[in-house]
Amino acid sequence: MHGRRRVKPSAEVEKLRKEKEATKIKEYNDLVASCFEKRDKNEFDNDAFTITTKILSQNPDFYTIWNFRRSILLYGILKECSEQDKQQTLSTELGFLQELFQLNPKSYWIFNHRRWCLEEIPNPDWNMELKLIGKFLEMDARNFHAWDYRRYVTFQLSSTTKTSLTQTEFDFTTTKINQNFSNYSAWHQRSKLMPRLIKEQNLDEQEKETLVNKEFELVKAAFYTDPDDQSAWLYHWWLVGREIQHISLLGAYYNPKMRQVVLAFDDEIGMVIPFQVTKKIDDNSPSSYIEGMWRPAGGELKHDQLNIDRSYGFVWIFTFFDSVKDDFTELIVTVKPEFIVPSHSEVKLTRTMQRHCIINDNYNLENESSSSLSQSQDTLPIDTSERIKLLQREISMVRELLELEPDTNLLRELKYISGTNMEENSKIDDEVVTICDHLIKIDKLRTKRFEDLRSKAIFESATKSLVKLVSKELAYNDDTLQYQDSTFSLESKNLTIIPTPSILLYITKLNLSNNKLTSIQFLANLINLKEIDVSNNCITSISGVNRLRNLRYLKIQNNYIKNWEEVKNGFIGWQGVECNIYISENPLIENTNEIESLKIGWENEIKECGDQLKIIWK
């Protein structure tokens, strides 16, 4: 009792407790051993059933025993019994499960077995199940296992009675949310019901708007009550909508010197099935497939077209087999949704894309416009113009009503769906940067996340003009088969990442000095790069450069490279020609008293990677 001093049990009492506990453990282990023995012998009798009952009464999460128990019912007890006996046996089983719920009302395996029983029983009582699960949610309104089971029961009840329970369930979530705004499961259930409710009731635009506005009022009430609780914020994020972003093929070109087709995507993708490359000799001839090998820029070349390198890349390269003749006037690349794996679940390819590489115009690109945005599953059926207004309204609400900085997710979603308004997009990027700068100062646990988000906004704003370059005709010198030099600088932007390096595909001279980059692996995508300055960053090793055939200058001074192997390993398999590597003011040089003798050894070692590689110590 409270207020009474706790007395330590005597040694004799403690000994008796441990002996009793050891006896129970031995009895339990003996039961499990007997059960497994019967399972191995396929003994589906009443004795085995009784043993599983004893085990599950002590440990209801032992899923192996549940599996055996179902086998006993199917192949033993219920095998040849009448419908009436089957009804009685499974009704008793459901009663046993109700007892076990008292031990663990959040046991996945109890709910799973209950579903199985109801699907096997001749006459399931779904109304009783709904009442039962209602009692569960009275005891614990945030039991997500119970909410999931409730969705299952209402689906079965609706299917059986041929009546919709959508409105009833929607009202039920309202009750639970009003009881406790911090009920994420109820908000989640509501997000499942609202699109169905709009569809079933065939609401017109005015009615739909009224319903959605009521939802925002409910969310605002939750914000007032507890602005720090995430449940309502997540539902609010769902309400304003979140489009699945579509992967775009930024451009495709044919390099006649290397006999390669190069594809640039705006997302890092993996290839499951090789993209199709076809050729046409003239306007009257049919298309025919070209044999070759695909690899991501910086990845290994595979000798079997079906044996794709499973690494990801923004840029993919197709190299012709030697047997392919240069007798074509047009190349066509086809990319289908089933050919790729996106880098994360928020992006996808929804349609087949084709790109034409017109050989007569050398590196001329044709870039189809992306398909129109489609509503992601379980989102509200609101058109784009209405969603833009809605997002603008809700961003203002967060600013004024709660006196908080708006969620950067809302701002970026507004930018994504608002189309080609470059001025507005720039303002959004600027605001995202300002918010991130503030959050970096006050939220030290998520500094890296906000720094990366800030970098993404800065990069997108700075490179918006380059996106068009990837899909337009390139500046190309017919005599040397080389690009005309193009220079681009992102110096002193405090960038921690380069989110979409494929946008920089046609840059030959790139300045990324004075940032906070920790890796240069992204450089593997920039196959046309001649000069790169990444001095004064936080880079610990050289990577992604060994396949950059055109690279002439790599400036990586004043970074965090601590040992020579981190330099040398980056050039193993070097495929370029002469390249000067500037590595002064790195710890590998500062931390030794024998630097001059080491320099000679390092210079010899780097030549093992490529004769024309040269280390510059200044």
TrEMBL record:
Entry keyword annotation includes Repeat: yes
One Gene Ontology term, aspect cellular component: Rab-protein geranylgeranyltransferase complex
Gene3D superfamilies, per database record: Protein prenylyltransferase (1.25.40.120), Ribonuclease Inhibitor (3.80.10.10)
EC number(s) recorded for this UniProt protein: 2.5.1.60
Keywords: Leucine-rich repeat, Prenyltransferase, Repeat, Transferase
A Pfam family the protein falls into: LRR_4
Family to which the UniProt record says this protein belongs: Belongs to the protein prenyltransferase subunit alpha family.
Protein name: Geranylgeranyl transferase type-2 subunit alpha
Organism: Funneliformis mosseae (Endomycorrhizal fungus)
Lineage: Eukaryota, Fungi, Fungi incertae sedis, Mucoromycota, Glomeromycotina
